[in-house]
Amino acid sequence: MPHYSHLLPPSWKSQVAAWLHEDTPSFDYGGFVVGEAPREAFLLGKGSKRAVLAGTPFVDEIFHLLDCTVEWHIAESEEFEPIRHVATIRGKARYLLLGERVALNLLARCSGIATASKRIKDLAESYGFRGIIAGTRKTTPGFRLVEKYGMLVGGIDPHRFDLSSMIMLKDNHIWSAGSITAAIARAREVGGFSLLLDVEVRNEDEANEAIAAGADVVMLDNIDGDQLASVARNLRDRWKGEGKKFLLETSGGITEGNLRERAISAEIDILSTSSVHQSVPHIDFSLKIQIPPN
Fold first, then answer.
1. CA dist., res. 108 & res. 46, Å (int)
2. Do the beta carbons of residue 24 and residue 98 sit within 8 Å?
3. Which residue numbers are catalytic?
4. With 0-12 CB in 10 A as exposed, 13-18 as middle and 19+ as buried, what is 99?
5. DSSP letter string over 114-158?
6. What is the pLDDT along the chain (294 residues), one digit of tens a residue?
């Protein structure tokens, strides 16, 4: 059965090693105190709300590098109610503690993103939205792989991964090129047929220009409410039967609070929001070494 971990690139394990190196660049003073007696630790999912578990491959690798084993008691993407015993980790005491904070921080962030992603997806669907819910590229430098992974586990589209995986032309590109048409023509010269072209627009006129010039996706940025529905409907009517295929994306300032007015199922294909990964609440986890029986 395919697992999201099968998406991870060859480089991801070296990132895990770098996290451990960052956290213990020289002497392990606390490790000296506890020594290397074999111990068992319980990984507990805490907090006050129902959460989604995400980030298990990274935690597995953290402890694998420290010669510890991880036994998961719930599956990745499964929801749990706090307090839940989600895993048992076994290994030498100092190695358990060497991996503790790195693993907890990663799990807290990744699970927080997965939880927020699932929540906004479920909310949009409850409003009748049947399009694509996506994140954005507003991720933490050096931690994008984990954050995009969390979006996938939460059930949403991670959107473009980087500048090389899709051509997105925003206001600065357009102003620098002189016009939407000029920017699209220049992008097509080098992007070829294999890259989708997503163009940010501010109004209906700009959207029509983008579609005429060959945009694959038209991002209606910061347009909301009745205006969003009207613009989207007009674009569908204007280009019906013209042989132009395009998707409409709504983006800009979308949160759970204003989701209803942006999740217009009949007109909008994609709803992208950074609210599922920027400033998202983390999920609290703790690792407790168990006292061995006498």
1. 10
2. yes
3. 138
4. buried
5. HHHHHHHHHHHHHTT--SEEE--S---TT-HHHHHHHHHHTTSB-
6. 678 999 999 999 999 999 999 999 999 999 999 999 999 999 999 988 999 999 999 999 999 999 999 999 999 999 999 999 999 999 999 999 999 999 999 999 999 999 999 999 999 999 999 999 999 999 999 999 999 999 999 999 999 999 999 999 999 999 999 999 999 999 999 998 889 999 999 999 999 999 999 999 999 998 888 899 899 999 999 999 888 999 999 999 999 999 988 888 778 999 999 999 998 999 999 999 998 887
What Å distances lie between residue 89 and 100, 105, 182, 195, CA to CA?
A: 10, 16, 57, 43
Q: Are 31 and 94 in contact (CB under 8 A)?
A: yes
Dump the DSSP string for 95-111: HHHHHHHHHHHHHHHHH
Task: Identify the burial level of 283 via C-beta atoms within 10 angstroms of its C-beta, where 0-12 means exposed, 13-18 middle and 19 or more buried.
Answer: buried
Predicted TM-score (pTM) of the model is 0.94
Q: Provide DSSP, 194-214.
A: TS-EEEEESSHHHHHHHHHHT
Pairing of strands 69-72, 84-92: antiparallel
Alpha helices, DSSP H, located in the chain: 12-23, 29-34, 56-64, 93-126, 144-153, 171-177, 180-191, 204-213, 225-239, 259-262
Our CA dihedral for 282, 283, 284, 290, rounded to 10 degrees, sits at: -140
CA-nearest of 101, 110, 70 to 86 is 70
Tokens read off for 247: 């998707």
